[in-house]
Design the sequence.
């Protein structure tokens, strides 16, 4: 086992070793996190709508815990399929206006389950280079040919689709909003290419579900493309403030997944209280429009304030605002300086992002106040000057 120590030393030498952060005993208020007994502004959570501490969700979970018990006791196909699942899947189908829905234990398992169920050795998957790791892992596990196209490059994708046009099944898969850059996939063009080359199209709405669409249905719905996307996937761990994931599509697709998606078949069902809490979260995502509106306005202001200060900030309108620093060590020092100022914002380094694009990935929440964010911008500017990231 000595090799592990050597490898760890190499990681540390490149400022690439990762650590689990210690939490503190302080109760957390929305938008904040406790670290080592201090309450810190949390600019690194995916709690976009500020629902993780919602009293109505907590109360629903408490009631379900009392009526349904702690664990589900088995996988869904055995005896774990309790009433809260049927209620949630019915509500999801109505929300998305699709034929059927299926809940998975989390987004990682949903992506692995769907991709391995749809393609195999004789098939090919076209995947954006910046897609989430769970998509990559699903493709590798499926044994299909893994073809990566340059980020959002539709000309490149077309060439690759043409090259592999004779494969048995073709699947194009993309994040709707990319996790580390906050930019959007060109969904109109993807739909056109999928139709032209008779491929299946799967869209991962992990970062866009709850955030886009009149009732939080996601980016596909916002663009009017919900009926053109074959497999619509999203997670409950971000905007919903919960845990779990969903896949929406045709009745046939869902029947197939129930038979073939191994993470669904060979793993225990989520605790019923979690599923019940998610139904409550879904109702709030649909009804509380003010959360989306507030998040949207805060994202615009935060992004433009940092951009006009002279930081390297990509354009976009999502609550994910990456501040690109390049160097791993600068990113770590920036994050540490923010920590000293009472702000938690994690440095993201390779292999999560390409080499020389280390960054601070800010993610905003409807739980943040205008003052929280204005203060944060001042501190970020100050640190930018101190570290020489901004010219004087
Ligand atoms: C977070 C995320 C996932 C995984 O979802 P979990 O529910 O946290 O497992 C999948 N895809 C994307 C794009 C994500 O950002």
Sequence:
């Amino acid at each position: 086992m000595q090799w592990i120590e050597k490898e760890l030393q190499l990681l540390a030498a490149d400022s690439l070793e990762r650590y689990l952060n210690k939490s503190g005993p302080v109760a957390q208020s929305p938008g904040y996190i406790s670290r080592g007994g201090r309450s810190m502004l949390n600019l690194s959570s995916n709690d976009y709508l500020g629902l993780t501490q919602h009293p109505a969700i907590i109360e629903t979970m408490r009631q379900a815990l009392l009526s349904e018990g702690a664990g589900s006791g088995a996988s869904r196909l055995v005896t774990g399929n309790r009433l809260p699942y049927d209620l949630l899947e019915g509500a999801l189908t109505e929300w998305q206006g699709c034929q059927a829905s299926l809940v998975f234990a989390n987004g990682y398992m949903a992506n692995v389950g769907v991709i391995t169920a749809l393609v195999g050795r004789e098939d090919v998957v076209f995947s954006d280079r910046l897609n989430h790791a769970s998509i990559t892992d699903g493709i590798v596990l499926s044994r299909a040919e893994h073809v990566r196209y340059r980020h959002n490059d539709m000309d490149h994708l077309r060439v690759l689709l043409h090259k592999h046009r004779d494969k048995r099944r073709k699947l194009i898969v993309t994040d709707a909003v990319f996790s580390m850059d906050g930019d959007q996939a060109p969904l109109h063009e993807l739909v056109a290419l999928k139709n032209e080359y008779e491929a299946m199209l799967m869209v991962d709405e992990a970062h866009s579900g709850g955030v886009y669409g009149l009732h939080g249905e996601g980016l596909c719905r916002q663009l009017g493309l919900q009926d053109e996307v074959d497999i619509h996937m999203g997670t409950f761990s971000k905007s919903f403030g919960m845990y779990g994931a969903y896949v929406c599509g045709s009745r046939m697709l869902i029947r197939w997944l129930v038979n073939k998606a191994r993470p669904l078949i060979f793993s225990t069902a989520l605790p019923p209280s979690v599923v019940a809490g998610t139904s409550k979260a879904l109702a709030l995502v649909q009804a509380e429009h003010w959360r989306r509106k507030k998040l949207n306005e805060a994202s615009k202001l935060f992004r433009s304030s940092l951009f006009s200060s002279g930081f390297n900030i990509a354009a976009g309108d999502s609550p994910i605002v990456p501040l690109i620093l390049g160097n791993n060590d600068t990113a770590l020092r920036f994050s540490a300086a923010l920590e000293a100022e009472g702000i938690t914002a994690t440095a993201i380094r390779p292999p999560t992002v390409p080499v020389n694009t280390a960054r601070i990935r800010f993610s905003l929440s409807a739980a943040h106040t205008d003052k929280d964010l204005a203060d944060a911008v001042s501190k970020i500017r100050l640190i930018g000057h101190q570290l020489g990231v901004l010219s004087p």
Observations:
- The radius of gyration is 21 Å.
